[in-house]
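Researcher: Structure for this, please.
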Amino acid sequence: MPLNAGALFLVFPVGARAVGMGQTAMGSEGHGEAAFWNPAGLATLETNEFALHSATLVAGRSNVLGVYFPSRGIGVLGGAAYLVDYGDLERTDENGNTIARIAPRNFEFLASYAAPLAGAFFFGVNYKLVEFRVDCSGDCTNFPTGQGTTHAIDLGGQFQVGPGGPLRIGVALRNIGFKLQVQNKPQADPLPARLAVGAQYHVLLPTRDGAPADERFDLRVAADVDSPWGHQGQSELRFGVDVGYQRLVRVRAGYAFVQDGLSGPSVGLGVENGSIGVDLARTFLTGTDLLIENPTFFSFRVTF
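Model: Predicted structure, C-alpha cell format:
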C-alpha cells in the first residue's frame, strides 16, 4: 500500500471486537463497528446504537464516535467521526530550544447506509470525507503547515448460506476515491484502496442436557483475505475465533498475517448487560513504526 501520512490511517483497525478476532470482519454483522470493515454488516443491526472506540497509536490516540439507526422498510442509516491525534511535536532551533509546536491530525467523517437486498443478500455503502491537517504555533517560519481534504467511498456485500444462515460470506472494496493533496498536486498521495473477502461460520456447541438454542454456548470462526486495489502490494491473511454465551460474555482470539512487521496474535473479551456493552482487545505485534508494540483497543456501546 502507499505509505503516506495523509491517508494511511484509513487502514488502521477500528473496534475491539474485530481486533480481538485477528482483524476478521468481512462476515461480521449486527453492530455499528462493521461500518469500518464491511458496511454490509450494518444491515442486520436491530436496535439504535451509539458507540465509542479508542486505541493507542505511536504518538497519540485514535477515537471514534458512531451512531446508527435501523428502520424497517428503509434500512440502516448512520455515521461516525474518526480522529487520529498524533500529539503536539516540538520544533527546536540549533541550540535545542523549543521555538514552536506542531500538531498533525487525521480526520474522517463517515456516512453509512445498509439494507437487505433480497433474501440472504445484504448491501452497504460508506461516504467518507477525509482530511489531513498540520497546525503550528510559535515560530513557524519556513514550516510547511497545511491542510488537505479528499473524498472516498466503501462498498460492501454479504451473503448468507444454509438454513438460518450459519455461514456468512462478505466482500468489501474500501477507500476508493481521489488523491489527498496537502501542498501541491505533484505531492498528492493516493488513498490505500483495499479489496477484502472473508467468511464467518456460526455454530452452537453441543450440550449433554439438551438445552434450547438460546441457552447454549456458541462458536464463531472467521477468515479474511485483504489485498491492494489499483496498486502493488502484498495480500494479507487473517483468522479469528469468538466463543461465548449469548451476548453476555465473549472470549476472542486471532492471528493476522500482515505486512510491514504488523503480523501477530490478538486476544479479546466482550461483556454485555442490558443495553450496555464493552469490548477489549490487545494485539501482540512487533517490528513496526506505526503502532506501539502491544496496542490496546477499547469499545463502548449503548443500544436504545
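Researcher: Any notable elements?
Model: The first helix runs from residue 16 to 20. Residues 1-5 have pLDDT under 50 and may be disordered.
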